[in-house]
Amino acid sequence: ILALVAMTGCSKNEIVDANYEAISFDGVFVNNATKAVDPSYGEKLLTAFNVYATATGNSGTAVVYSGEEVTETVGENSIWECQTKTQYWIPEAKYTFSALVDVPTENVTLVANLPSSFTYDVTTQKDVLHASATATGKATGNAPVALTFNHLLAKALFTFTNTDANANLTVSNIQIAGLSQIGTYTIGNATWTSNTEYTQGFGNAEVSAGDTQTNEYERLIIPGTYDLTITFQITDNKGGQPQEVSATINGQTFEAAHVYNFTADIKSGLTYITFTINPSDWESGNDNNIQG
């Protein structure tokens, strides 16, 4: 018979004396392909996540985790575990786990002690992820909880082909207006709601004559359908004045876990431009690095 009070009222030593096994995590993947994630848009591995969990048995439901951080131990047989709150499997208890990456606990709304939704500000450019799992506790032989994280945002970038054979071009101050800054993600139906009052900058690109170049910045975008205005300046290496260039794209949809490459031909003297948009799955790169 499950005694949920053991999970919240007993000390660690009392639990160990009862030979209960500590809960740990393994199989921590992003879309089952790689352990990589880019939480600060430098090249980083997934090093931590926040876990929420409940356990339900004959005596009711208890909170197991409430947003504590889980990190990976170092070593040949490394595992993921919560260093600040060790919890133990209770036989026959039904566990529900929900894990988030780069979502502060103060931004999370809980329902029945599990994340129901959270708010996100795109200016942070944090690559937020979510995973969930269920398990039933056993007296012995409990496997680590396997978590497969999913990207909840879209990503965009620009690629320019310089069709001018006689001039090197600098594309500067690349911007997309009409996007959302703050959004709310509802976990149960995997949907975003947001406002549309934000302009996202994409940096610059140097494109030699006859060359193709992807700009240096990829940017995260809250999924949704938007009417976009794209602007930038083109400067050639012949001493001319910067040329303002713009494009409008109505009804552009960005889906979670997809990368959108805005590609266009450019040359000196452009004032209006047409983009081809090439969406693709958010691919996982080699060496545990996410690449679009």
Explain how this protein is built.
- This protein is mainly β and 292 residues long.
- It contains 2 helices and 21 strands.
- The protein has a 7-stranded mixed β-sheet.
- Strand 12 (182-186) and strand 13 (191-194) form a beta hairpin.
- It starts with a helix and ends in an 11-residue tail after the last strand.
- Mean pLDDT is 84; it is low at 1-17, 32-44 and 284-292.
Write the layout of secondary structure elements.
Elements (H helix, E strand, L loop, with lengths): L4 H4 L3 H6 L7 E6 L17 E10 L2 E13 L7 E2 L12 E8 L6 E4 L2 E8 L7 E8 L8 E7 L2 E9 L6 E11 L2 E5 L4 E4 L3 E4 L3 E3 L4 E3 L4 E3 L2 E13 L6 E12 L3 E9 L9 E6 L11
Parallel strand pairs: 1-9, 10-20
Antiparallel strand pairs: 2-3, 2-5, 3-4, 5-8, 6-7, 7-12, 8-9, 10-16, 10-17, 11-14, 11-15, 11-18, 12-13, 18-19, 20-21
